[in-house]
Every structure is written in structure tokens, then in C-alpha cells.
Design brief:
Strand 1, helix 1 and strand 2 form a beta-alpha-beta unit. By secondary structure, the chain is of the alpha/beta class. It has a domain of about 150 residues: Rossmann fold (3-Layer(aba) Sandwich). The strands form 4 sheets. The protein has a 7-stranded parallel β-sheet, with helices on both faces. The protein has a 3-stranded mixed β-sheet with strand order 12-9-14. The protein contains 9 helices and 14 strands.
Length: about 325
């Protein structure tokens, strides 16, 4: 089994933590972890009991050769994105250009970029598929579209560099035990309500989401790494998506969630309301990806692990 050297940029991010927890225990993976706050990465690694890991300030990326670069850098908190939406452009472009420069020097390296379903635009009255075109109101762009435009721009740059090994993975919804409970998402609101025993308020809109389990996320990454020469994009999907009320009812039955439906419930969304935010574009099957978990299974397992850890904050709902 050959050793794969992986540079993980944005190592304090939610998705990066899942990758560290999985790859950090494997003999065929050697991690180089880059972050603006290396001390936070060290604390996380120590709490996982992973032993010594190679941890660096983000600015030191490129000094050590690696086989794979995974770019987890970005703004994932809807609250922060709402407050500084324009910054997503500079963050995305700065680090994407830096990694592209690295590939120019090391053309055999693989670049895995975390993209988003938001690259499809703002039309999610139905799920997207392989024939879906991106749709943006080009004459009336709002801050809700900035995130998707930035992601689409990066994807276009990557496809134009057809001779380089670059894969964009479009994440739609992801939840794990490593999420920051202080961020404002549907699932963090649910977890906070369960932990506190308070009633959660929600709107009557029954949105559909597709949450990938951390094990399936790592499986997809491994499928990409196993490819020889590749420049492509894949949507990320589970065995089956779930509606909001399927999720709420499951958590009421299994974890005692209390919720009330009201038109006046406050919803935090930085990229617009998306009714059917998931993909039927399952092209990742072509590189061997086969998810093992559906959304409800993923959410319940990871929520129980998070609650067992006792790290849920009692923030206002």
C-alpha cells in the first residue's frame, strides 16, 4: 500500500476535521495540516488522540512537496458570510491561484477543491441533474449569489487548465460531530434545541436536503485520489435526501426534539432560499463512488456522537 502525502488547507474547517479524523488514523495517508490558527488544529488532533501530526501556518503551504492538495479554505458560517459576502471572492481567488501555481511546479500533484451546489445558481425549485445549467440574475446580482458565482468562477478556471489534475467536489449539505454548534444552520438549530430542551421554531416551508455522511465523504475523496490523470467536477450525494419535516420528526421520535411551525420563524441563509437543494447528477459512480448512508442515517448517527461529546453550546434559537 503506497503512502499518499496530503496537504490539507483550512484544517480548522468542518469538512477538514472529518478528513483529519479519518485519514489521520491510516497508514497509507500522511497529512500536512495548514491553518491560520495552527494551535486550534493541534488541540483538535490532541483531543482525537492522533499523536504527532505535521501542522503549519497557512502561509507556509508550498514549502513541502505533496501528492494531493485538498482546499477546505472558505467562509462556511452563514452569519459570517452575510456580514462580509464580498470577501468570498478574494479568499477563493487568492488560495485557488496559489494552489494552481503549486500545480505548475508539481504537475503530477492532484488538487481537490471543495466547491458547492451554489455553483448551479439560485434556481432550486427542483433538484439539479447532469443537464442543469447554472442560473444567475446577471443584471441584478445580490449578496446571496456571490458565493455561487465565486465557486463557479473557480470551477471554470480549473476546467480551462485541462492538463492539470484538478477535481471540484460540489457539496450541497454536510453535517458531522465536528460542526461548530455556534454556526446557524438547520441542523445546529435542531441540536441546540435537543440539548437545551427548548422549543425550536421553524417555517412551514418543507425544504429538501441531502446530507452526506463523513464516511461517504472520505470514500469519495479516496475514489478521486485513486484516479490517475483527472480534471473533472462531481456533485456530492448520499443514498437518499430528506425533507425538513422528515428530519424534524425523526429527531422528535429519537432524541425528544420539540419544535413548532410558525410563519414568523427566523431563518439565516446567506445564499438564498433553496427548496430542493440536492443533485441527481451521480457521475461520481464512474470513478467508483458508492454511498453507504442516506441523509437521515447520517444526521442521526453524527448528532448522537455530537451530543455524547457534550460540546453543544446553549446559544439562543
Amino acid at each position: 500500500m503506497s503512502l499518499v502525502r496530503i496537504a490539507l488547507l483550512g484544517a480548522t474547517s468542518h469538512i477538514a476535521k472529518g478528513l483529519i479524523a479519518a485519514w489521520g488514523r491510516r497508514d497509507d495517508r500522511k497529512l500536512f495540516l495548514y491553518a491560520r490558527s495552527p494551535e486550534r488544529v493541534k488541540d483538535f488532533v490532541t483531543n482525537l488522540g492522533l499523536g504527532e501530526q505535521m501542522i503549519f501556518p497557512a502561509g507556509e503551504f508550498g514549502r513541502i512537496a505533496c501528492d494531493v492538495v485538498v482546499n477546505c479554505i472558505g467562509i462556511a458560517d452563514p452569519g459570517k458570510l452575510n456580514n462580509d459576502a464580498a470577501r468570498i471572492f478574494s479568499i477563493t481567488e487568492t488560495w485557488d491561484c496559489r494552489i494552481m501555481e503549486y500545480l505548475s511546479a508539481y504537475p503530477d500533484a492532484l488538487y481537490i477543491n471543495l466547491s458547492s451546489g451554489a455553483a448551479y445558481g439560485c434556481e432550486f425549485s427542483r433538484p439539479v441533474d447532469e443537464s442543469t445549467s447554472a442560473l444567475f440574475p446577471v443584471n441584478a446580482l445580490s449578496t446571496a449569489e456571490y458565493y455561487g458565482v465565486a465557486k463557479l468562477h473557480a470551477e471554470a478556471r480549473h476546467r480551462a487548465a485541462a492538463g492539470l489534475n484538478i477535481v471540484d467536489l460540489r457539496f450541497f449539505s454536510y453535517f458531522s460531530r465536528f460542526i461548530d454548534p455556534g454556526t446557524r444552520f438547520l441542523m445546529t438549530d435542531i441540536i441546540t434545541a435537543v440539548e437545551s430542551g427548548r422549543e425550536m421554531m421553524t417555517t412551514p416551508v418543507n425544504i429538501v436536503r441531502d446530507y452526506i455522511h463523513p464516511e461517504d465523504m472520505v470514500s469519495l475523496m479516496d475514489c478521486v485520489i485513486a484516479c490517475n490523470r483527472i480534471n473533472d467536477v462531481y456533485d456530492v450525494y448520499s443514498l437518499k435526501p430528506a425533507t425538513k419535516f422528515e428530519i424534524l420528526e425523526l429527531f422528535r421520535e429519537q432524541l425528544g426534539l420539540r419544535f413548532r411551525v410558525t410563519e414568523g420563524a427566523h431563518v439565516v441563509t446567506a445564499t438564498g432560499i433553496k427548496e430542493h437543494y440536492y443533485s441527481l447528477n451521480h457521475r461520481a459512480e464512474r470513478i467508483g463512488y458508492q454511498p453507504r448512508h442516506d441523509s437521515l442515517d447520517a444526521l442521526l448517527k453524527e448528532s448522537r456522537a455530537l451530543l455524547d461529546n457534550g460540546k453543544v453550546s446553549a446559544r439562543p434559537l
